[in-house]
Amino acid sequence: MNKAKNILKDIFGYDSFRPLQNEIIQNVINKKDSLVIMPTGGGKSLCYQIPALIFEGLTVVISPLISLMKDQVEQLRQVGVKTALLNSSLSPEDYKINFENVKNKSAKLLYIAPESLLKDEIGSLLKGVILDCITVDEAHCISEWGHDFRKEYRQLGIFRQNFPSAVCIGLTATATPRVQDDIMKNLNMVQPKKFIASFNRENLFLQVEPKRDAFQQTVDFLNEHKNQSGIIYCFSRRQVDELHDDLSSLGFSTKPYHAGMSDEDRNKNQDLFIKDEVQIIIATIAFGMGINKSNVRFVLHHDLPKNIESYYQEIGRSGRDGLRSDCLLLFSYADISKINYFIDQKEDERERLVAKTHLEAMVKYAESEVCRRYPLINYFGEKYHNDFCGMCDNCIAEEKDLVDITVHAQKFLSAIKRTGEKFGANYIIDLLLGEESDRIFHNGHQNLSVYGIGKELDKKQWQKLVHQFVRKEILVRDMEFGSLKLTPKSSDILFNNGKVRGFIKEIKPATKKLKLQFQSEENYDHELFELLRKKRKSIADEKGIPPFVIFSDKTLVQMAAVYPQTENELLSISGIGINKLENYGSIFLTIIKSYCARKNIQLKSSAKVRTGANRQKPKNNSDLRYVLVGKEFNSGKSIDVLAGEFNVKPQRIISHIAHYAFDGNKVRIEGIKEKISLPEKEHQKVFDAFKEDGTTTLSVIFERFNKEISYEDLHLFRIIYLNGNS
């Protein structure tokens, strides 16, 4: 585990493990099968990526989502991990290169789709290497009781049996206890251990609003999230296209995404979204996106999801960087009828039963008056007892002025009774308001005594009352047809003078009252953050990769909060490891230092990582990797010997020694000069450049010599210069 901790810091840039990661990694390293249930953004990937870098052989990662695989592979390559990808998205040339990297054992991880495992060439390839770990991502897809069952996942149990010495780890963000057991059984896990992290994503604000004017509600919500990245989910392809056209006409940056589009157009739009070229993607609920974008700030459900698992996964695509994100669901009873219609088209009776059970749980969540996290988290088998989360609409709503609504209830219940308990909420409301609709006239209901008796309230107020009547069990909703039915409580109100209390006046949208929650990230320099964000985008465009692959928003926020001035201070920031420091550190340090000088920002000390960054520098530096390397080098060990002992490249050891010298420590010169490839007659020019430009940012020196001197040589020169031997 010491090696695992070093990998966590040096490669991935994190000081400590998140909850359960340490125990999971230990279990996997010990070759014990593991099932990991961890919410999106909880750190599942590291649970197999770190063991992969410790195992001698290959780790195969099986995932159904091509776009997600591509993102993860790119992120691993950015931190210096040799990773291969084999799927249909690759050109023949790239496929061959990736195939050879696995065959010659240079790749540590292979990402692959489940259907590819049936190919003879893949089977032969994997039999020719040491396979240490089989990772099954989105493992819920193997269970018929899961919300996203995929038949191709059924073969994974057989595949696993062909490699009995490989440890198996299944990962998913959503699985009920029943689905968990199904996963372990179908993957033929041997004495598996379950690791279930909390399903509580504390940084997500949860909100449900009755759907009244869905388009205007969407526009209002987007106006509250200007210049932010987000996802809107719709029920149908037609709704996706129409909403995209309507929002685009108002100037919003949107693109559609659904199964009716060509693969080329869908992939193009997703790529624009991932690379921050487009702010909002509008997608069908039925078509999973599988994105790994960390800076999604909101998810809006334009229509009701068909189950809680889908809803939880979809809202989980926001706030992966740990920063606050808003999740709004627009809820109407008409959506229930639409979903039921499609459920009824299923031929298998058990499938229909499972789908209706899932839908009923989703509706109960939407109608809940208690803390949103209570029904959501308890659904997955976790006991949640907090009465006030402070991050949902129900918890932070203003005190509701309860009034006597008995007369309103009697009018509504009478209308239901007189129309035979056959209609839904909107029809009854139209009847009470005296609407002259074709449907009402066709049924002859304009002649009923209840026609037009509810004009004292508007449609919006009646809709709010209906939700209260259902929650109070004065009414029940037919889950199959959406019609409203009377209950024993209804009779008490209609015939026995039973009283009802509730609220009528409009409640202010909860999103506008949120700023009191999750304030820790707000304490940063927004102007500097924008400068860093623009630089990140330009670098990403140049490399053809998503911006979050370079640094997450959270990393940029911490930079803008603490104004790091040295490479060591950058290393103290979450998400910055050695490889990213070497690739991008000098670029971002230059921007920060220039900004501080221009704004005359006075920095009190070199220990810049303080409030807001949540990553204090250890009081005792003796356990830091670069300190250990520096001391070992001074004891007489060579750079190559240390590279072998720490299982890294010699360049990494040189970087560690440079950091050690940069801290003011003396370093022996023997073994340093010999590594420099530049002719000795050119050495003094480099030392003169250090005298003139300083030693903080090597990129300045690198550019000064027209990029003809390698960074490795510059690190070596800096070590010598800092020791006064120039």
What report would you give on this structure?
- The chain is an alpha/beta fold.
- The chain folds into 4 domains: 2-196, Rossmann fold; 204-396, Rossmann fold (3-Layer(aba) Sandwich), CATH 3.40.50.300; 403-502, Winged helix-like DNA-binding domain superfamily/Winged helix DNA-binding domain (Arc Repressor Mutant, subunit A), CATH 1.10.10; 618-726, Arc Repressor Mutant, subunit A.
- Helix content is 45%, strand content 11%.
- The chain has 32 helices and 17 strands.
- The strands form 4 sheets. The chain has a 7-stranded parallel beta sheet with strand order 3-4-2-5-6-1-7, with helices on both faces. Strands 8-13-12-9-11-10 form a 6-stranded parallel beta sheet, sandwiched between helices. It has a two-stranded antiparallel ribbon with strand order 14-17.
- Helix 22 (526-543) crosses helix 24 and helix 30 (683-693) packs across helix 32.
- The longest helix has 22 residues, at 578-599.
- The protein is elongated.
- The two termini are 40 Å apart.
- The relative contact order is 0.07.
- Residues 507-521 and 605-623 have low confidence and may be disordered.
Per CATH, the class of the largest domain reads Alpha Beta
CATH superfamily of the largest domain: P-loop containing nucleotide triphosphate hydrolases
> How many individual domains?
4
Our count of helices gives 32
Q: Describe the largest sheet.
A: 7 strands, parallel
In CATH, the architecture of the largest domain is 3-Layer(aba) Sandwich
Determine the CATH topology of the largest domain: Rossmann fold
Strand content: 5-15%
Helix proportion:
40-55%
